[in-house]
Amino acid sequence: MGNPISKKASSTQQSVVSHAFFALFNDKYLFVVLFMFQGTKLFMLDVFRSSSNLLKTFTGHNGYLNSIDCLTLDCGQFICSGSADKTVRIWNVDINKQIQSFNGHSNYVYCAKFSQYYHYNNHRIVVCSSANDKTIRFWDIKDNQQLQVFNGHQYGICSIEFSPFNGGRYLCSGSFDNTTHLWDVETSKSLHIFRGHSDTVRCVDISPLQSNNNSKSDYDKNSKIGLIGGNGYTICSGSFDKTICVWDIETTRQFITFRGHEDWIRSVKYGSNELINTILSGSNDSSVRLWDIRSGQQIQMFNGHTNVVNAVEFSPFVVSNIKIGGHSNVICSGSIDNTIRFWDIRSNKIALHIINGDDENDGIMCLKFVQIIKNRKSNNYSGCDINLYYGSKDGSIHIWG
User: Fold this and answer.
1) What span, in angstroms and rounded, lies between the C-alpha atoms of 61 and 394?
2) How far apart are the C-alpha atoms of 382 and 374, rounded to whole Å?
3) Which residues contact 392 (CB under 8 A, 6 or more apart)?
4) What distance, in Å, lies between the first and last C-alpha atoms of the chain?
5) d(CA 108, CA 84)
6) Where are the WD repeats (predicted)?
7) What domains lie within the chain, and their CATH numbers?
8) Are 288 and 282 in contact (CB under 8 A)?
């Protein structure tokens, strides 16, 4: 039968999610409900909810599970993972099996992500990884070979993120050398080095939408890189110097520095849609914070974790005021205290819901929400779920849904 991931990549059928609402019942059950139109049919989709259970566990890594990413194709769903055991591994979720392991890094692998650029431009399934060996590497899963190596950082590379524009052609990376690099995947060239942090750049993200109002004349005068995806995209970087910096990609200028965390920053994430002008962060100080890019101020701080917050995400398809319409108002965080917590951004009170990791996990290292299309091979569409994937300190991967 061969490796199912070697089949030509194709997109799953897309439907339009038109309305959604969030509800909290009896202070116990957290539900997310969506109404979706496909053609003339109306479907109600229940998504990630507090009644979710542990569905699957994958084991194989023998070091911290530092990073996970997911890719859904018509032929199945796949996870890539990067670990302190120096390997990048590929897992087939449908058959509950590891199908590939790449062993080219000579030190801890800190981050692993599927490359959208190769997927959409070359119909190849490629994983990108960064490690403490100072390199970023691209791996072809079908041919089981290394395609590219980016060298340029002086120390280990903690984090990588692909651009959500231009088909993922651009990649940013944060390093123990205190810098953030921007790379062109197509040419394998470094486009710019952002300097400003006084300590390790532990985490990076690229804005999903254009968020500033620079005019074309400003661009013509100040641009140093060239028009990448259109004027207005930014990079944010979180550092062990306890600050978050926001950089304009076109002008390469640092225009905001957020201060407030009392210890190393481990994770940063841009909001989307109505929350595009916000950044979420998690820190060694055990707090989760939400920041406003426009004002340069902290909006909210969430306390409840008792140890390092390694991962933060905006919880999907959750909207305000418990009614149809509005924008996402729930965030999620994973911690070394072995809990995943859901918070309402309108309040800094106790968490809406808490997932406790297995006793053997010894801490949450990374997490990701993934949309699951049910009955992909069936002509009868039956809806979708949101599953929560997380990686733990003991090297295991867990799926809740």
Assistant:
1) 8
2) 6
3) 65, 357, 358, 361, 362, 363, 364, 365, 398
4) 29
5) 4
6) 58-101, 102-149, 150-193, 231-257, 258-301, 302-353
7) 43-210+227-374+381-400 (2.130.10.10)
8) yes
Can you tell me the distance from the alpha carbon of 104 to that of 112, in angstroms, rounded to the nearest whole number?
A: 13
Which tokens go with 396? 């295991």
| Rounded Cα–Cα distance for residues 303 and 9 (Å) | 42
Q: Which two tokens stand for residue 189?
A: 């060239």
Six-digit token pair at 361?
């996990």
The first and second tokens of residue 321, run together, are 């005021």
C-alpha separations of 166 from 118, 171, 182, 271, 340 in Å = 12, 11, 14, 19, 33
User: What confidence tens digit (pLDDT) does each residue in 20-40 have?
Assistant: 333 333 333 343 343 343 333
Structure tokens at 316: 């999907």
DSSP assignment of 266-312, as one string?
Answer: EEEEE--GGGTTEEEEEETTS-EEEEETTTTEEEEEE---SS-EEEE
CA distance 221 to 183: 22
Distance CA 197, CA 177 (A): 9
Length of the chain: 401
DSSP 8-class letter at 134: S
The 10s digit of each residue's pLDDT in 126-169 is 999 999 999 999 999 999 999 999 999 999 999 999 999 999 99
Cβ neighbourhood burial of 188 (10 Å; 0-12, 13-18, 19+): middle
How far is 289 from 280, CA to CA, in rounded Å? 6
Any long-range contacts for 57-62 (C-beta under 8 Å, 24+ apart)? 57/358, 57/396, 57/397, 57/398, 57/399, 58/91, 58/96, 58/98, 58/396, 58/397, 58/398, 59/395, 59/396, 59/397, 60/89, 60/98, 60/395, 61/85, 61/87, 61/89, 61/395, 61/396, 62/395
Judge if pTM exceeds 0.90. no
> Is 65 in contact with 83 (CB distance < 8 Å)?
yes
C-alpha 147/C-alpha 140 separation (Å) is: 7
Q: What is the pLDDT of residues 240-290, one digit of tens each?
A: 999 999 999 989 999 999 999 999 999 999 998 778 899 999 999 999 999
Contact between 386 and 46 under an 8 Å Cβ cutoff? The reply is no
- Please tell me the distance from the alpha carbon of residue 173 to that of residue 366, in angstroms, as a whole number: 17
Angstrom distance (rounded) from CA 182 to CA 196: 14
